[in-house]
């Protein structure tokens, strides 16, 4: 229930002040505020303003470098490396994205490896930044061990998000972005706060039995989506965006952090594709052919992923982002008390 509304710019300014008050550099505060407000504005509450407290806890615990300056390294190859220097991933992505796009236009495909970052965010803002440059892209990262592999009972994988985007001329891109667990851990936390049970099939309790109790789920293990299929995709993410890029896997990230209440540190892998380069010399325009496919999907009444988000964005851009009194009070407390509030 909305008690007040704030426009994107006003909420962003408030969130920047909260983060700067907590010691984040202007570069990092602005990058975090942009993704958090984007989440809230697109009605993605699991990665909206509720994440601010977790970021502040992570800063207070000294587990993230608050004034990190990302270092971008590249040569003539297709791999762009960004060392986040122990800071949040968001400023690192923003620093590397233009270089990734330039390399991709030259080579047809290019990858950005982000190392040594703290990561809490949704991936779709990054995917949309690349589709806005006319590129198709995918992004993935580990998290920390909280998901049992299919057939197992102990938390091992992270909720390992996987996102993909395809640019569409004159319209919103095709974008999906999901946890490889049945739901993001943030969704479980929101159920715990609201005192509502989880849908069946999301999680198991510490003794391995199915549970709909958020507390038991957070203490036990979440389940991968799609059984063995989600489990395998999650494993792929551990391999490509952990092992392959020389960064932490989800069990290593959990052990390094020693907690599941702070944002974990690990790496991220983003791969960009130039569809025109791949389709060169072949019949048909790839963008026109993609539209035929999207029309066939929506033509039978199915919706495209992100349509709900884009609709929410259009509404909140026109009318402001709805916030409850409790959410406003929480923001004001974080602003006034800074790190003492967490
Ligand atoms: P959801 O299950 O809510 O949504 C997943 C995707 O499916 C979205 O693109 C969504 O579009 C789309 N979708 C949902 N329903 C339909 C439908 N009926 N038809 C077509 N498409 C549909 O996401 P999750 O809870 O799995 O993940 C939420 C967020 O959590 C993600 O942004 C992810 O990046 C983030 N996350 C981040 C982690 C990290 O370590 N940084 C870890 C895990 C998750 P729409 O939004 O329009 O509904
Ligand atoms: O919602 O699963 C999640 C998550 C983990 C880290 C950031 N988001």
TrEMBL record:
Record-linked Pfam families: Ldh_2
Q: Which UniProt keywords apply?
A: Oxidoreductase, Plasmid
User: Which Gene3D superfamilies does the entry mention?
Assistant: 1.10.1530.10, Hypothetical oxidoreductase yiak, domain 2
- What residue ranges carry the coiled-coil annotation? none
The record's InterPro entries line, in alphabetical order, gives:
Mal/L-sulf/L-lact_DH-like_ah, Mal/L-sulf/L-lact_DH-like_NADP, Mal/L-sulfo/L-lacto_DH-like_sf, Malate/L-lactate_DH-like
The similarity annotation says: Belongs to the LDH2/MDH2 oxidoreductase family.
Q: What's the protein here called?
A: Ldh family oxidoreductase
Please report the organism this UniProt entry assigns to the protein: Sulfitobacter faviae
